[in-house]
Amino acid sequence: MKGGVISKSGMSAVRIFVCGVSLMLAAVFCFAAFAQSQVVESDVVVYGATPGGIAAAVAAARNGLTVSVVEHHKHIGGMMSSGLGASDRCDQGVVGGFSKSVFNRIGKHYGMHLTWHFEPHVAEQVFEQIAKDHAVSIFREESLTSVRKQGGRILSFDTDAGRTFAGRIFVDASYEGDLYAAAGVSYTVGRESHAQYGERFAGVQPYVSSRQFPIDVPAKRRDGEFFHRVNPEPPAKIGSGDKKIMAYNYRLCLTKEKDNFVPIEKPEGYRAQDYELFLAFLQRRPHTLLRELFHFFPLKNRKFDLNNRIAFSTDNVGANWEYPEASYSERRNIEQDHKRYTQGLLYFLSNDDRVPPLLRSNMAKHGLCKDEFTDNENWPYELYVREARRMVGEYVLIEQDLLKDVYKPDSVARASCPLESHHVDIHMDENGSAKFEGWVAKRVKIYEIPYRSMLPKRAEASNLLVPVALSASHVAYSSLRMEPTYMMLGESAGLAAALSLSNKVGLHELDYQDLLKSMRASGLIVRSRAP
């Protein structure tokens, strides 16, 4: 250093020193952060305490593995604990294993051998007891923040609670596919085009007359403005693909019994104009009955599972398109929007003087159940996410697999529910009437779901199984998206994880005959004929 100026060689030395100190400090900070993070190590880590996730966890635990389940919500059991009390089982002869045992246990609560209709809190109690019986560790109210991988292998993931979950095999049992998305696994959102897989029911659909208003209702108000939720853009070409998804709703648990009755109050942010399209229909057809607007599925103890029915009902059409890839905070906003819409709709029908009197008085007789969702203002814990991300894995299940090529050499579950996509959008037709688009309904054969549909592409994730947001087209997923099926797939995933670890082979190399033997021993009904 001469005259207060650092020479070039001196400057280099300073830079080296500063860089060295920076690296040391960075290492110290990283070590401190890691030290503060609580590491939970398990043989199997399940993300999502949905029915499918609990099935996977229990199947792995029964085979001697340590299991951790990480759940974003406070409550476990997914939609079965959140209002979907009338279970979609379709051909119940294909429901076996853990899935069938859950409905047996719920039935036992009511003094029955089995029941498919139940109160949400009973389903939650059953799942809690099952998890406890099998020493499954459940970590609640923790959301995934990042994933660590080495090559194609997942090592661990972090949560916003400051924990790191490390495991040998991972199961993404979330409805949204959040773990595999963070792990870089291929997926899709929305509707494939007809051209992509040659599916008849793919992409934008023609209007289904039986799923519209029974009379013509204008899409615009008298001032020329579109009614709320009507898309001012015309529909795209029939069969074209898009990023839109079928509507979500809340499956409410209602009652008419006064001793268990909670009135449906006006929600914060209520806007009567949001229901003016519905009002335009009712004014043109004032004799409309309540049972024409909603499905009231009877549950035990004089309760009802309320579900969408005709065009304008509990489905908040078009309000969920951003949900699959939204952040957790953005999803909460979408959930609140759906709650405000649904609560506001029932309040509107019960209180607005413009609603026909008989309909208004009949709606007012229904309230929320005082003994359900007691820590959530008697409102369901979860929004009904019928479809979000769908993995693009080793095998994409498509429409033809449900209607024609139904047998699979590596079947891990059988399913039978019809193709059923709810509405996706609302448009104005050439006559100026509001039309709901996206509905698909088609009976299927009993079909088999291949093991490959739970496997990501080998290079993307070699130690991950996906029994819920699995590899299927929008059309195929509209059939298999049922909780009994998720549970059967989850159990198969747990058994595959156990075999993979005990036999020391990768999930992609697993001998199907070994898995088949294990599935049959567990009571799963996975094949209709000998392989």
Description:
- This protein has 531 residues and is an alpha+beta fold.
- It folds into three domains: 1-35; 38-191 and 392-431 and 442-521, FAD/NAD(P)-binding domain (3-Layer(bba) Sandwich), CATH 3.50.50; 209-369, no CATH class.
- 31% of the residues lie in helices and 18% in strands.
- It has 14 helices and 20 strands.
- Strands 1, 2, 3, 4, 5, 6 and 20 form a seven-stranded mixed sheet that branches. The protein has a five-stranded antiparallel sheet with strand order 9-12-8-11-10. It has a two-stranded antiparallel sheet with strand order 7-13.
- α2 (51-62) links the parallel β1 and β2.
Can you summarize this structure?
The chain has 531 residues and is α+β, with helices and mostly antiparallel strands.
Quick tags:
7-stranded mixed sheet; disordered N terminus; FAD/NAD(P)-binding domain; alpha+beta; 3 domains; globular; 14 helices; about 525 residues; 5-stranded antiparallel sheet; 20 strands
The H-level CATH homologous superfamily of the largest domain, spelled out, is FAD/NAD(P)-binding domain
Number of helices: 14
CATH topology of the largest domain: FAD/NAD(P)-binding domain
β-sheet strand percentage = 15-25%
Q: Topology, please?
A:
Blueprint: H1 8-36, E1 38-47, H2 51-62, E2 67-70, H3 97-109, H4 120-133, E3 137-139, E4 144-150, E5 153-159, E6 163-172, H5 178-182, E7 187-189, H6 194-197, E8 252-255, E9 261-262, H7 276-284, H8 290-293, E10 294-299, E11 303-308, H9 328-351, H10 357-364, E12 367-369, E13 389-391, H11 399-403, E14 411-415, E15 419-421, E16 425-428, E17 434-437, E18 440-442, E19 447-450, E20 464-465, H12 474-480, H13 483-503, H14 512-521
Parallel strand pairs: 1-2, 1-6, 2-3, 6-20
Antiparallel strand pairs: 4-5, 5-6, 7-13, 8-11, 8-12, 9-12, 10-11, 14-19, 15-18, 16-17
